[in-house]
Amino acid sequence: MDVLGNYKSVISARSADKDILKKAQDGGIITTLFAYALEEGIIDGAIVAGPGDEPWKPEPMVVTTKAELLAAAGTRYTISPNLSLIKEATRSYGLDRVGIVGTPCQIQAIRKVQLYPIGMRDVDDKIALALGIFCMENLSYQALEAIVEDHCNQKMESVTKMDVGKGKFTVYTERGAVSQMPLKLLHKYVQPGCNICLDYVANLADISSGSVGSPDGWSTVFVRSAKGNTVWDGAIAAGLFETKPMDQVKPGLDMVKKLATEKITNNQKNVEARKTAGLRADGTPKGLRNPYESP
Ligand code: FAD
Ligand code: SF4
Q1: CB-ligand 1 contact for 73 (6 Å cutoff)
Q2: For 101-115, what is each residue's pLDDT tens digit?
């Protein structure tokens, strides 16, 4: 299996919009693409991880304006159940063309909804643009709080940005990068499901993006589907991105491939270990009947 999935092109890019770059996590790819798709009528709303009641706790949100997109820009390193809003987006908000951003597992779930729309009638054909973000692992909100407050000694409310890169988890405040923690110390906090996850770069998204492979402030972008291609070409023609060929940036595609291979190889071992222990890959005992499987 190719650890990077199928893609039509891979590029290093960053948004040409300075307001987006100020708020975005990396090259502002997701916010710029959704803003463009809204403007062009490709989508009439997007489900994103907006700011919640507690600091850095995301709240899935349906947004329809660039201002709302900007408020939701940046990465929140905890679970944001964006899919929980799919039905509401189409039924309560009345959207016919929905954009959605998600981690690789969430993009897989979207594709399952489209293949088997059980309980999701009228939703499957309304997903107009699925944008994926790379993901090595994820944390519960309690774990994130413990990491920031106990290990990094910062109050959640004073943090302006969190970032993962170059083997470290970094916390920023108004004073700049104030605390760093080696990623290997983070592993014990990771959600158990992430230890059997076999997708790093959102293989099933229309377009997927992450920082790894590209220089600071830039993103690596995989254009994957025909729809993704149309949207990407349109955004490029509209002058919305600066781009560089992937083979001219450092650390480059080899780094993305290396990390994807490490994640998948390690997690495949965990899947095998669970099988040997008489568990399904999802951790449930084999003797228990899955209500969704035929007897
Ligand atoms: P922006 O324009 O800043 O937009 C980001 C979009 O993502 C926003 O719409 C926002 O609402 C949404 N979002 C924020 N948090 C979440 C969330 N928790 N779940 C779903 N949607 C969310 N990139 C790597 O290169 N390597 C990694 O190992 C890696 N691990 C990650 C782990 C986690 C848990 C998450 C959430 C992201 C990870 N990323 C990783 C992706 C990276 O942090 C950026 O999100 C990505 O590069 C997009 O940046 P951007 O500037 O293009 O997006
Ligand atoms: Fe989902 Fe996999 Fe990321 Fe965990 S590691 S949040 S299962 S994509």
Answers
A1: yes
A2: 999 999 999 999 999
